[in-house]
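Regression check, fructose -6-phosphate case 608:
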Amino acid sequence: MCGIVGYVGHRKACSVLLDGLKRLEYRGYDSAGLAVRDGEGIKVIKEVGKVSDLERILVGLDLEGRQGIGHTRWATHGGVSAVNAHPHVDGMGRFVLAHNGIVENYHELKEALLADGISFSSETDTEVIVQLLSKLYDGDILRALTALQARLEGSYALAIIDRDDFNHIYCLRNGPPLVLGLGEGESFCASDIPAILPYTRRVIYMDDGEIAELSPQGIALWDKSGSSLQKKTFFVDWDVSMAEKGGYPHFMLKEIHEQGGVCRSTLKDRLIGGRVDLSNEISLDEKVVSRFEGVHLVACGTSYYAALVAERVFERWTDLDLKVDIASEYRYRQGKIGPDTLVIFVSQSGETADTIAAERKAREMGAYCLAVTNVRGSTLARDCDDVLLLKAGPEIGVAATKTFMGQITALYLLAIYIGRLRGTLHVEQEMELIDELIQLPYKIETVLDREPVVEELASRFADSNNFLFLGRGISYPIAMEGALKLKEISYVHAEAYAAGEMKHGPIALLEPKVPVVVIAPRDSLYEKTLSNIQEAKARHAPIIAVGFDDDERLAQEANYVLSVPYTIEEFSPFVTVVPLQLFAYHMAKKRGCEIDTPRNLAKSVTVE
Ligand code: F6R
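Current build output:
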């Protein structure tokens, strides 16, 4: 959803900005641009395509300036072109601005500016902002920015430089994230931490309605009413190598291979004395938990599938009524939400616009809100009553993999903890579950060692254009996740169905050219799943099954089996999801797709 980076200090801004844009490219990658101080003026360079295309142009220019802003775009208003790429400049050539978000009243603002004789060169809502700023400026930048804020409706994170001010960058936020970095004699702003991680780990998270002034000497902040703010500085515990490929050809593959470690670190320090103990992190206790009647799990995309997996264990280990919903639906629904509802928001980024809007609605209605997220200082984390962090480290590949693993690990811990606090899970049961939990990282690593088998399978099916994914019970959301991974990075059409639903419609699709991927661990629904395999086989569809080691019946029924180590029923998603991620990866690779930056997608969806 667009990435912004800004720098002012003692280094060459151009290289800091380019480096930052490369680290933000997962947020949008149809065009990129930067604006850098160049003597008395500001040089703006924009190009369609990836940041590497922009870099090729910059090679020939010797930009020495120490102040600048950059942007990588995911188009909303206006097609993909160099003119529409950011940064945008006002008609006087004074203010230069990069924007992430959507200005909802841009049409009305533009009409008023046109009536004043101001002309526009792009089709973007962003150009409206910079032209309006220029119009509002009367010599006092803070006054102009406050007035600008009052006129804009919609979402925006802005980074602004002024041709006549060599020392500052100004930032505004309403909706999309903006993090400010404090260095020695330098300051940074960015849409996400990895962009500034090579330079500083001291950050301030901007909140909605705030204005920031960055200079080499430090950062000053004001709220909407113009009052100066003292904000907390956070120390980021990610290091720069976590945001690099580390010898892997793609971030996605590296992140898939990190999953044993992610599960391990998400469990670390949370299993104490043979029990799950989250009391140091969240304030849910017996008293709070006893007032709940229902749990709602709300999320988007892959995080929604993690929530669906969690639903199956919450219903086993607690006595709470459950509802799982997609955030973009939940935010507009009429259902009962109140102080007796625990609403768990699952979001790796903590910045997804629909999830944040759903959280605000639930909070207004008095619910207890808990975020399960990977980003400590994210909007969701700061808005909720409680936060349970995944310990996944930064995820750069657009397709979520290791954060899904972190999410299900954290949600399982939460389900066990709540089950115990409500007295629905007994000590022996909890100990049995913990025994299994601590073996999971090794089992995940065993599956990863079998990557060559998955790669070989992807070679066989690389030309298939339609897949059906089936699963029952806890394997149904894994079928959905497997299908989503395949379609988003290899552009292969893949549909997921609850295996029992196949005969109610999708069976019509089956024929020898439609492979069926069936998630079939030997669990309580195994026999039923085998019957569904028979039905698909009878239509001559090739069967690819994911099942437990040494499952001879499955080997007889399926054409191909991807084996994973045995787990008790509730834990199979931890191992069955991994071959599906690898399959999607290798399919995309064989088909020559851009794996880390799939077309039309952006990692963090900060607009509705
Ligand atoms: C799929 C994917 C998306 C995200 C979704 C929610 O691979 O990454 O479906 O899961 O956009 O994002 P978060 O978890 O940041 O709220």
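Comparison notes: The mean pLDDT is 94. The pocket of fructose -6-phosphate is lined by residues 300-303, 347-349, 352, 355, 399-400, 484, 488, 604-605 (CB under 6 Å). No diff flagged against the previous build.
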